[in-house]
Amino acid sequence: MFRLLKILGVGLLPALLSITFLTVSLTTSSQTAKAETLTWLMKSKYPYKVSVAFYSKRRKHSWPGGRKVWIISDSSVHEYTLNCRRGEKICYGAWVRGNKSRYWGVGYKGRRGCSGCCYRCNGGETKIRVLKR
Questions:
Q1: DSSP string computed for 56-80
Q2: Alpha helices in the chain (DSSP H)
Q3: Closest CA relative to residue 89, chosen from 71, 110, 67
Q4: Which helix (DSSP H) or strand (DSSP E) does residue 44 occupy?
Q5: Where are the domains of the chain?
């Protein structure tokens, strides 16, 4: 190999750097291709503050994560864009602040069952989910 590099007039260091760069580029692009986003649209018509979080059904992951939640305290449409894995099933959980027994979707910590409260991570956005009495 060294003889071929010498014949081509290429030094060993530039050749190794080129190979390393190519390997890193291919690895990075394949990892990036697996990442997606999912934008949730949420609105509350409930008269009190509501906590919202999102839960992966494939892995132990939640958004915003770290025991944090988003709070909806008005009737505006709120957007939550999640970085997720392509094809991952994500469900929303919402509950009244201070009253976890009043919930929507999968509820507090994603422990409840639901119908129609999950979407696949595919780079799109959900329809507006309206939280009512």
A1: ESSSS-EESBTTB-EEE-SSS-EEE
A2: 2-8, 12-33
A3: 110
A4: strand 35-44
A5: 2-33, 35-131
CATH among 3.10.100, 2.40.50, 2.20.25, 2.60.40 for 35-131: 2.60.40
SS3 category, 21 = helix
- pTM of the predicted model, to two decimals? 0.74
**Residue 44 to residue 53: CA distance in whole angstroms:** 14
Q: Are 112 and 106 in contact (CB under 8 A)?
A: yes
Can you tell me the distance from the alpha carbon of 43 to that of 131, in angstroms, rounded to the nearest whole number?
6
**Dihedral pair phi/psi, residue 28, rounded to 5°:** -65, -45
Per residue in 60-112, pLDDT tens? 999 999 999 999 999 999 999 999 999 999 999 999 999 999 999 999 999 99
Per-residue DSSP letter, 38: E
* Cα angle, residue 76 at apex, residues 133 and 79 outer, rounded to 5°: 105
